[in-house]
Amino acid sequence: MVQGIGWYQSRRQQKTKKTLINWDLVTVNPNNKNWDWKDLFCFWGVSIQSVIGFSLIGSLYVVYNLNSFVIFFGTILGAIIVYFFSNLIGKPSQKFGLPFVVLLRSSLGIKGAKYFGLVRGLVGIFMFGIQTYFLSKAFGYLIRIGLFSIDSTFLDKEIFLTFFLGLNIIDWLSIVVSIVLQFVLFSVGMNFNKKIIKWSAILVYFGILVFFLAVLLTDVKSTARSFVDILDLGNFLQTDNLVPLITVAGTMFAYFSIVILSFGDFSRYVKDEKQLKLGNFSLILNLIIFSFLAVFIITGVDSFLNNDPQNLSKIFTNPTDMIGKLNNLLITIVALIFIIIASISTNLIANFIPSQYSVINFIPSSLSLKSSSVIISLFGILIAIFWLTILSQIGILSIIDTFGAFFGPLFGVMVVDFYFIKKGSLINKDIHSLEANGAYFFSGGWHIKGIYSLILGFIFSASTIWNSSLVFLQPYAWIIGAFVGAVIYYLLAKE
User: Fold this and answer.
1) Taking the CA of residue 314 as centre, how many other CA atoms within 13 Å lie in the half-sphere pointing to its CB?
2) pLDDT band with cut points at 50, 70 and 90 for residue 231
3) What's the rounded Cα separation, in Å, for the pair 398 and 368?
4) Are 385 and 167 in contact, with CB atoms under 8 Å apart?
5) Residue 37: CB partners within 8 Å, gap ≥ 6?
6) What are phi and psi of 270, to 5 degrees?
7) Could you tell me the residue ranges of all domains in the chain?
8) Quick one: CA torsion of 49, 303, 74, 267, rounded to 10 degrees?
9) H-type helices in 187-308, by residue range?
10) In which band, very low, low, confident or very high, does the pLDDT at 317 lie, cut at 50, 70 and 90?
């Protein structure tokens, strides 16, 4: 009887040991650590080459009185901060070949990482759905252009004027196509994802250059004169520009903050630390190129609009309107195709892959890349369908921003844990173990010191969202939360 009980306990322990082991979460095979600085150049290129990225730079351009130097140097300053933080969070994953959610077990415990890691996944899934909605709009434009070219009265038929949940048949088709296409592309694996990132970055830069030339050649003299007019360094050197410069830097950092936290999901595939730092430095080069092209295009279009800031600001609500100002069907179609490519690749790195790892980590014994992709896609299509009619009307973005307030403190706690508490070490067998004597089991799977630090950092970050008197600090909420979480964790966890 005693022997039977011992055998049962032994079998149970063996089974338990396997519950956190998942082939998508374990250390990357050395043969698959094949990313170099060029791959990271494409990665950072994709992260900024979105409609949102273009709109952000354009909006800053309008807000700060068309001062190109404030935007330019502000974005560079923001990029330097992102470079520094990406190196910090990227090194542990590069060294051990583990994704963000697995490394999180070291500072929060295996259960703490399970639930707080899922927060990153939920935000990613929600943003995936929203991005999919806007992606579907581009597909919808292409479908409408195609139908209109066949018969100009086609779109007046009753079938296209019937709406269900605020969407007509073209909208529904566009959403389904968007979801299915992304599912097929994203669920193959990282080697294929690497190719998507590479070719997307190259093609989108090519598309932006074509758009740049189209704007320039529309009216060379007017466009060139508009661009020269804003290159007034004397205006930039005014002390009044210091606060806007810092604000632009904070805004640009906030734009990249969601990517920074999960950067380890990609840096785990980088060959060595040298390639990691060199590749991250390419972010600055990407922003220089992208900012220059974006500001030039914006000033050129602004000259077409007779320098009307009101019309210009409307364009950034829907940048595809800018394409229409050129009154060229071919350019419109090409631009929409590039918008689709950029949206898909951005959705991949910012939302889908981090969500995959977070979902798998929640039930590692049962889920895979394929099954997690199904879950994300199902929730994504629901969000895309209900985004315009319901979700955008109930202030849900504030809730998502609140969840996002955890990201800075998560970063701070993880960095301090790796560099100052664990001194760059990791017990690989325990990081995948549910055994009570494991190094990362702590108290029932929760590292209370890490949880306390995270919650206190979160309070500081979230206060900039919910306290109207602190809203001016919102661009820096991530950094504030990271600093508070890091300091508290160091004080609590140091021996």
Assistant:
1) 9
2) low
3) 31
4) yes
5) 275, 278, 279, 281, 282
6) -80, 140
7) 36-493
8) 10
9) 190-218, 220-229, 233-236, 242-261, 264-267, 273-304
10) very low
Q: Helix 37-48 and helix 329-347: axis angle, to 10°?
A: 120
Least trusted range by pLDDT, from 56-65, 203-212, 351-360:
56-65
Mean model confidence pLDDT for the chain: 84
Enter the DSSP assignment of 494: -
Task: Kindly tell me if the per-residue pLDDT of 219 is higher than 80.
Answer: no
Joined tokens for residue 451: 């949880």
How many whole angstroms separate alpha carbon 283 and alpha carbon 402?
27
SS3 at position 164: strand
SS3 of 270, please?
A: strand
CATH number given to 36-493: 1.10.4160.10
Termini Cα distance of the chain: 45
Pairwise CA distance, residues 477 & 460, whole Å: 8
Burial class (CB in 10 A: 0-12, 13-18, 19+), 473: middle
> How many whole angstroms from its chain centre is CA 246?
22
Long-range contacts from 219-222, C-beta under 8 angstroms, 24+ separation: 219/300, 219/303, 219/304, 222/300, 222/303, 222/304
Comparing 123-132, 140-149, 166-175, 450-459, the range with the smallest average pLDDT is 140-149
Output the pLDDT for position 494. Answer: 87
Q: What is the pLDDT of residue 63?
A: 62
